[in-house]
Amino acid sequence: MSKTGAVDEQEIPFTSTKMPRRVVVLGSTGSIGTQTLDVIEQHSRELRCVGLSANTHVSALIEQAKRHGVQRVALASVPKNSADNDAFEHYLCTAQTSLRSGKTLQYSYDNASDVLPSALERTNHERTNELSSCAHESTDDMPHYGMEALLALATCPEADIVVNALVGAVGLRVSEAALQAGKTLALANKESLVVGGDILMRLAHTTGTLLPIDSEHGAIFQCLVGEQHAEVARLWLTASGGPFLGKTLDQLRNITPVQALAHPTWHMGAKISIDSSTLMNKGLEVIEAHHLFNMPYDRISVVVQPQSLIHSMVEFVDGSVKAHMGTTDMRIPIQYALSYPQRWSAPVAPLDFTTLSQLTFKAPDTTTFPLLKLAYQAGKQGGVHPCVMNAANEVAVYAFLNGACAYTDIARCVETVLEHQIHYEQESIQQLEAIDADARHKACSVLGIAFEQHQHMRGLA
């Protein structure tokens, strides 16, 4: 990997198109995951999905697995709903039977619902008999629930590319495992680099390959292809400004989750939508860019570009600027991460320049939205400070989404927890997980909620 974070020509992992690239999608039922599967479907000759994971959306995961003929599936936890549990166990039984027989599950994108019978369409007696038989005959040793299942998918020998679209710091261990296993990690889980960037980038330089899926980092990555790191003067990360662009601090005090989730240009999951509205998402991206492109923080700038047509820019020492433009659709950066170093046919309609009326730019308001400034500070302090910042932010965001704190409490919580953090260098994932847990307890205390309540809000209870 070069000093810019781009993959050198001699390190390109894929030089042949004779065999499809085999992809594992972690977090497949979320926004990035579903769009990744759409790209895979549009390029079925070049890509094949071999593994899927979800958090709680069992029925959606099963339908995805049927549609793509996927034998390796995993859930973040055992379903509490008995019907969901039965449906998942039945799919596992069917997939394992296929594995034992050495056959591949057949699928057709036009008739995906007919690939495998739904467990919910069968009698309890039939399901019980099938599950009992599967339990006695199974030869599949891969775990299917919890972190161990996610790690098994991220390192399975069938995979060439691992798309990490998990939400939150839970994605860190998975990113580490994929890189250690020599996989190409297509990273959408920004918290991985924010929390453990020092560790992950060492692995990306030695054992694995890391390609960004974020629209902004994918744009910078493309602008840097063929360029020299020493000739880069500045990275420009563009921000839409979120749904509250131009609002005052007083106007934000009574913001509701519904208002904060209404992003003006991007359709995203709940956590990232709230982060976008507070500008924390841009702060996380600044820290990511520092790691990905080996760039000091004083040479990474944020500019608000409300139309979201310029996805980011690179300024060079001679005054030239490369800007990456395109339709506001995440399938474009997702596809480039899966096709690199090639370019495939567009997954969406191209941008029509004749319809553009204006492109506007303005500086971010870090007084009204202080989380961006706090992210810069945490990044410059380095060590475990970004980990602490991310943990406190996650606690506050989930609390806000569940009505347990005000919108403006998110920044207050992060700032308070950071103020009392002692500096430590990043040493290991285990150390960062301990720091993360401690910061979450402190954030809960600041907000006056029980840690168990936060765990429930995250869907981990």
Summarize this structure as a short list of keywords or feature phrases.
disordered N terminus; alpha/beta; six-stranded parallel sheet; 45% helix; 12% strand; 461 residues; 18 helices; four-stranded mixed sheet
Strand order, largest beta sheet: 3-2-1-4-5-6
| Beta strand % | 5-15%
Low-confidence region ranges: 1-17, 111-139
Shape, per Cα inertia axes: globular
The percentage helix is: 40-55%
Gyration radius, in Å: 22 Å
Order of helices and strands: EHEHEHHHEHEHEHEHHHHEEEHHHHHH
- Class from helix and strand fractions: alpha/beta
The total of helices stands at: 18
In total, the number of strands is: 10
Mean pLDDT: 87
Main β-sheet, in a few words? 6 strands, parallel
Distance between the termini: 40 Å
Would you kindly provide a written description of the structure presented here, covering whatever features stand out?
The protein has 461 residues and is an alpha/beta fold. It contains 18 helices and 10 strands. It has helices spanning 31-42, 58-68, 82-101, 124-137, 146-155, 171-180, 190-206, 215-224, 249-252, 257-261, 270-278, 280-292, 331-339, 371-381, 385-401, 409-419, 429-447, 451-457; strands at 21-26, 47-54, 72-75, 161-164, 184-187, 209-212, 232-239, 300-304, 310-316, 321-325. The strands form 2 sheets. A 6-stranded parallel β-sheet has the order 3-2-1-4-5-6, with helices on both faces. Helix 1 (31-42) links the parallel strand 1 and strand 2 (47-54). Helix 11 (270-278) packs across helix 15 and helix 16 (409-419) packs across helix 17 (429-447). The longest helix is centred in the first third of the chain and has 20 residues, at 82-101.
